[in-house]
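Severity: low
Component: inverse-folding endpoint
Summary: output formatting inconsistent between runs
Steps to reproduce: submit the following structure tokens with default settings.
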């Protein structure tokens, strides 16, 4: 497992169920509300996420705090969606133009942050501002979304506890990429109980990052000699590059991170 701030949000989910196959298996697909996802980031947006690090020449663990900001987001719906403040969603192809194809879905909201990290608000502040135009950010669920919907979160360092002075190895920033539609159905036998609406009890879904990128992640804090840390980070960054290429999406933060690699 690579050393980077992954911070997968844990989000309450319900489960839409349907029968399939000759043995009448019940296939349960987790469903999350976007509003619950933003709630999962609320405390981190206010106080930061603390990550315990072993720092060279320091005889104790250092808790480095990171604040999440919204770096990029693409939301595609499986059906046309419009609210009072946003235009009706349009069907979008791989090249970003309107098309009759149903490849990505119907484009609802597109965001690509270009402000400097110190000029940005935390993730929840940005979402609340975007929701003034796109109220679906608080009303849509993953059942409404295309599997191509995703967000990228930048984790910016703010302060260590205890204070250890100015250290380059604690200045690392990270990008994490997360699907907005959980894509891991679970199959249960006929004995699995669901209610009349085909919805089972609420449980948590962890949205682990499917890709990541690093900036200034050097030194033994992040890459230990003789380990696979470097290869793991490289693999995460390749996954991000592939995803962005497939989407035809120029991600400003990712491009900045990769252009500063040494």
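Observed output (run 2 of 3):
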């Amino acid at each position: 497992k690579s050393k980077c701030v992954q911070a997968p949000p844990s989000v309450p989910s319900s489960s839409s169920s349907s029968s399939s196959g000759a043995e009448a298996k019940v296939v349960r697909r987790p469903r999350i509300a976007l509003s619950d996802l933003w709630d999962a980031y609320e405390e981190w947006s206010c106080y930061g996420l603390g990550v315990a690090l072993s720092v060279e020449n320091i005889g104790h663990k250092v808790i480095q705090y990171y604040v999440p900001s919204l770096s990029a987001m693409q939301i595609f719906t499986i059906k046309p969606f419009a609210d009072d403040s946003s235009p009706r969603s349009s069907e979008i192809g791989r090249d970003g133009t309107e098309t009759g194809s149903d490849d990505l879905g119907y484009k609802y909201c597109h965001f690509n942050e270009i402000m400097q990290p110190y000029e940005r608000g935390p993730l929840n502040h940005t979402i609340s501002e975007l929701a003034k135009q796109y109220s679906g950010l608080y009303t849509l669920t993953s059942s409404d979304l295309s599997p191509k919907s995703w967000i990228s979160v930048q984790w910016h360092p703010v302060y260590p506890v205890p204070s250890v002075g100015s250290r380059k190895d604690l200045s690392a920033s990270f990008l994490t990429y997360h699907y907005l539609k959980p894509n891991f159905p679970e199959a249960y036998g006929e004995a699995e109980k669901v209610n009349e609406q085909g919805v089972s009890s609420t449980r948590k879904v962890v949205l682990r990052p499917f890709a990541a990128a690093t900036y200034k992640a050097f030194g033994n804090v992040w890459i230990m000699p003789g380990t696979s840390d470097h290869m793991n980070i490289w693999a995460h960054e390749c996954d991000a590059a592939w995803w962005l290429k497939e989407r035809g999406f120029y991600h400003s933060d990712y491009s900045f991170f990769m252009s500063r690699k040494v």
